[in-house]
Amino acid sequence: MDKGYKKLRTRFAPSPTGSIHIGSLRTALFSYALAKSAKGDFILRIEDTDKKREVEGSREEIKNHLMDFGLVWDEFYIQSERKEKGLYKKAADELVKKGFAFYCSCKARNAKEEGYSKQLRDPCREKDITKGAVKLKVPEDQTVKYRDYVLDKEIEWNTKDVADTTLLKSDGFPTYHLAVVVDDNAMKITHALRGYDWLPSTPIHLLLYKYLDIDRPEIGHLTDILDPDGGKLSKRKGSVTVNEFLKQGYLREALLNFVMLLGWAPKDNREFFTLEEFVSVFGKDGLQKSNPMFNRNKLLWMNSQYIKESKNENLKTKIYKFYDGKYEKDLVGKITPLVKERMKLLSDYESLAGFFTEKPKVDKKLFGENWQDHLKNAFVVLESIDDWELSKINDCLMELVQDKDYKTGKFFMDLRIAITGNKVTPPINESLVILGKEETLERLQSLIS
Known about the structure:
By secondary structure, this protein is mainly alpha-helical. The protein is 43% helix and 10% strand. It contains 18 helices and ten strands. It has helices at 22-37, 58-68, 79-83, 87-98, 176-186, 202-211, 242-248, 252-260, 275-281, 296-309, 312-322, 329-339, 348-353, 371-383, 390-404, 408-420, 428-435, 437-448; strands at 9-12, 41-46, 75-78, 101-104, 133-136, 143-147, 154-158, 166-168, 191-195, 218-222. The strands form four sheets. A three-stranded parallel beta sheet has the order 1-2-3. A three-stranded antiparallel beta sheet has the order 4-5-8. α6 links the parallel β9 and β10 (218-222).
């Protein structure tokens, strides 16, 4: 904004190398909110120049997830398509011509070593080579610095600690370092938010902005998301991708709401936000400088609250889709109001309601001492009911309990176990209505005989 741009523009620039990480979802969300809170533009840019690491289908998966979460982009770009236009080679040629970069014929190093190996100065930098990969010629003993937009502090490096880094590979594809600088400038990005692990690459980018004589955007590094067991959130400690959480039965709106609070805090300590509400109150001042903890118990609790507050019709559809149509949709609709208060995940539906579609195996050790008498008389009473509806079942069973002087809780617990195979289930009389008279009597009869 302060560099002459007409409006605030942010971008989310993932690589299509697999399922989208929770940290990436947060970067996309914060970038989207920053732009939309200022009525600006949100750009999606697929950074697919590392073809060896690309996973088939990842590009579409990223787009689908963003759409499903409501993070709709205003513009869309694919770096490999931009590469064909010669944009990155043109920038690399300019750097070589100005003496800020050089050709290197050395064998490519491992990506993890690139830019940060012990050998910071490339032996080709002083040779007269006219083809190969293009590398940045890092100056000696200079200070490069910038003020981080998120961390709100000045960060600096001495170039003696910065390696000569590959900008354009010998196959003509740019590395992240060159592509991100060229593209952010071309797309007029005003604010670039990214993960904290990208901070070490910043001095390379600062040099490129200077050498290409272009304005840099405000750069902000979001905090690391920590695991409660220690260290950064990682695969070896549990789920870290959006797909994994969705497969477990988390709702998208709950997951997005939880991610909102990982490194951002509202002024009033509010916890529940729709995307629109979040955008309306989002601001730089709420971005935290301390690393947030990924509290899985908190996420599970938040998901349970979203399930409880869901409209029955919407929840029915979510459950039906979660199980890929395994259960008949109308039946799911009848059961949903009975189980939603007990559900924490969509995947809880099967354990709570599986008895409706599959006759349970009953462990007789679960019954009380008078279970046979309870079930025999319950069978007689239920068999006599012609109008199989809730009020009739309630009245007849309660009349039986009073006539026989049964303990109400023990009688209904035995009935619950006989019908469902479990002690914890949806309300039993309501379940009998859905299950139907014939199936109810058949289950009781099989235990009595």
